[in-house]
Amino acid sequence: QVQLVESGGGLVQPGGSLRLSCAASGSILSIISMRWYRQAPGKERDMVAEIRNDGATNYADSAKGRFTISRDGAESMSLQMNSLKPEDTAVYYCYIYSAYRPPHEYWGQGTQVTVAS
Questions:
Q1: Block means of pLDDT (10 residues each) for the chain, length 117 residues?
Q2: Helices (DSSP H) in 16-82: which residue ranges?
Q3: N or C terminus: which one in the chain shows less Cβ crowding within 10 Å?
Q4: Does residue 31 contact residue 96 with C-beta atoms inside 8 Å?
């Protein structure tokens, strides 16, 4: 069973930067979409950024201009987060959607990002 492994979370001061990374433990075929989600305490899990197999990207309004998603390898991605705010505090999850028969969703275990002084 392929797993997604995240790294790079931690504590950062407001205005600081963090880079999250995510890599699969094995091969994933027919990747259509790679995403980052986040979930703050008491809130729903929301998509933060997406990069599709054609290179197109999408961002939540809260992330536009501050976060950048990139695909670093066949099954790896990163999220560069700049100008972090306390409201960015959440557990961040990476996600991959594969259309390989049958279609499959992969989730990382989550990494905590805390923005506080």
A1: 94 98 96 97 97 97 98 96 98 96 93 97
A2: none
A3: N
A4: yes
